[in-house]
């Protein structure tokens, strides 16, 4: 046996990561349900490194050095379970199975527990960066037993993206921690994309810019604080001209956003954890709204009630949108990091949020200059309560606040939906409020259900005898 790693599931992501390992000098055993994909990879890229072609699972497993390390790159869900079962049957105690798909973290917890009983190590690893990242350096978020990272870490780190000499890969935490963190990464990805979408919408409908003009603005923004992969590709997508019609491609793409599920999972988990991830939730719902074709059809032509005029100072409004985007993005990350901390407590993972900021600086879809700032924030204060109170971000929001409000007001007056900008601003206003209306909510709950409330002036739980003499009793 001579292969240091095996990759099974050779669709684009699997093939690219296998090539990435080979390009870094590792001998890679290849396996795929249909051998045609394996042969195609070897025919096209066999000269990039040392590949071992295998046809059966037994042959695949036999090709690997011990402890055997197999990376599974198949569709999340039942397909993953089937492959794990086949591999586990052929492997021996101490061997490591790595799931590099977008698995639901609770599945990863279940799989890790059952493989541990059989003496195998199971590592649920979030891998971000799309096809290009898989080939040239993704951000990798491996969970699972710490000891398996000793043998696996150097291998994964060798193929990950590198920023300032630091690989974008580190051991995240036990069992499902890696996939949990990848899930939250994707939630933030959704929020970031939605915010960019809202900015685009404002340029289009409030300033009347065409796609090429908007592309130029995003191109410009990508040289400043907002510099990020998503802003960069936004400029590219907006510049693309459709060969058939000669129109900007974005104008001929159907405006119904799809989703494979990771954003939805993030919100479901946040609901269970009680963490307000409003930006991510709005992003998931905005995709759902865009896809509600029957409702959108029925609502066409409803009253707009537009108040006020379009902005006349385009340069000022452009800067306002940039600030609103930056501030809302801070909120989205603050919320995502809150969820990571809450998940860590709930599952006893002992996660280090600063690690995420470090390994998301390169390779992944949400990579951004801004992540350096988040890393610095956690370096300065590993116990940070919320990103929005950290001096750098606090200042950034203070600088942005007038613009942020103007954007939400203008969008509202013009009837342009900005759910993520607006809810992020409300989240900020909610957190900084002296008194929230939750006091009234508590009073109402006590009224109809004797659910009790706490008082501002003394400890304890209290109930007012609403249907009696309305005196207060200690509960
Ligand atoms: C990544 C991406 C990747 C995938 C998304 C797409 O980090 O590389 O997040 O995992 O492209 O899951 O998600 P949707 O299909 O739900 O938009």
Salient structural properties:
475 residues, binds 6-phosphogluconic acid
Detailed description of the structure:
The protein has about 475 residues and is an alpha/beta fold. Helix content is about 55%, strand content about 10%. The chain has 19 helices and 11 strands. It has helices at about 10-25, 35-45, 55-60, 80-90, 105-115, 130-135, 145-160, 175-205, 210-220, 230-240, 260-275, 280-290, 295-300, 315-345, 355-360, 370-380, 390-415, 420-430, 440-450, and strands spanning about 5-10, 30, 50-55, 70, 95-100, 120-130, 140, 160-165, 165, 460-465, 470-475. It has a 7-stranded mixed β-sheet with strand order 3-2-1-4-5-6-7, with helices on both faces. A two-stranded antiparallel sheet has the order 8-9. Helix 8 packs across helix 11, helix 9 packs antiparallel against helix 10 (about 230-240) and helix 11 (about 260-275) packs across helix 12 (about 280-290). It is globular. The protein starts with a strand and ends with a strand. The model has no long low-confidence stretch (mean pLDDT about 95). 6-phosphogluconic acid binds next to helix 8 and helix 11.
């Amino acid at each position: 046996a001579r292969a240091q790693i095996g990759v099974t599931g050779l669709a684009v992501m699997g093939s690219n990561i296998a090539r990435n390992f080979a390009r870094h000098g590792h001998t890679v055993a290849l396996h795929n349900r249909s051998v045609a994909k394996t042969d195609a990879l070897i025919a096209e890229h066999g000269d990039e490194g040392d590949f071992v072609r295998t046809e059966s699972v037994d042959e695949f497993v036999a090709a690997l050095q011990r402890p055997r390390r197999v990376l599974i790159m198949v569709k999340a869900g039942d397909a993953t379970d089937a492959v794990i079962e086949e591999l586990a049957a052929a492997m021996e105690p101490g061997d490591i199975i790595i799931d590099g798909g977008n698995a639901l973290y609770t599945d990863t917890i279940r799989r890790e527990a059952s493989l541990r009983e059989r003496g195998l190590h199971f590592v649920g690893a979030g891998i971000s960066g799309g096809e290009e990242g898989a080939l040239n350096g993704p951000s990798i978020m491996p969970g699972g037993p710490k000891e398996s990272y000793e043998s696996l870490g150097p291998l994964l780190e060798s193929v990950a993206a590198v920023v300032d000499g630091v690989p974008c890969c580190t051991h995240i935490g036990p069992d499902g921690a890696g996939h949990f963190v990848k899930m939250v990464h994707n939630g933030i990805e959704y929020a970031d994309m939605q915010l960019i979408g809202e900015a685009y919408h404002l340029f289009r409908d409030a300033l009347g810019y065409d796609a090429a003009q908007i592309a130029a603005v995003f191109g410009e923004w990508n040289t400043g604080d907002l510099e990020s992969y998503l802003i960069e590709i936004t400029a590219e997508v907006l510049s693309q001209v459709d060969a058939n019609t000669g129109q900007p491609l974005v104008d001929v793409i159907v405006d119904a956003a799809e989703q494979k599920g990771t954003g939805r999972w993030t919100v479901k988990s946040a609901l269970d954890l009680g963490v307000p991830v409003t930006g991510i939730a709005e992003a998931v719902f905005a995709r759902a709204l865009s896809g509600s074709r029957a409702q959108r059809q029925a609502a066409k032509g409803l009253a707009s009630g537009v108040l006020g005029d379009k902005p006349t100072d385009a340069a000022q409004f452009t800067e306002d949108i940039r600030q609103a985007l930056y501030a809302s993005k801070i909120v989205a990350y603050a919320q995502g990091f809150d969820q990571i901390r809450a998940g860590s407590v709930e599952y006893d993972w002992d996660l280090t949020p600063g690690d995420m900021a470090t390994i998301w600086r390169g390779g992944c879809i949400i990579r951004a200059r801004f992540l350096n700032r988040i890393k610095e924030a956690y370096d300065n204060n590993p116990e940070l309560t919320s990103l929005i109170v950290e001096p750098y971000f606090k200042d950034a929001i203070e600088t942005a606040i007038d613009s942020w409000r103007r954007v939400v007001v203008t969008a509202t007056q013009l009837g342009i939906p900005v759910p993520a900008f607006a809810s992020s601003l409300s989240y900020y206003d909610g957190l900084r409020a002296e008194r929230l209306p939750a006091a009234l909510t508590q009073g109402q709950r006590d009224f109809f259900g004797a659910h009790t409330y706490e008082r501002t002036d003394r400890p304890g739980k209290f109930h007012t005898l609403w249907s009696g003499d309305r005196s207060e009793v200690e509960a």
